[in-house]
Amino acid sequence: MPHGQTRAQRAPKTARPNLVRLHVSGDICPNLLPRLLGLVAQFDEIPYGIALTRCPASLKLSIDLGRLEDSRAEILLNKVAVIPTVRGARLVALRRD
Question: What pLDDT, in 10s, does the model give residues 24-39?
Answer without folding.
Answer: 999 999 999 999 999 9
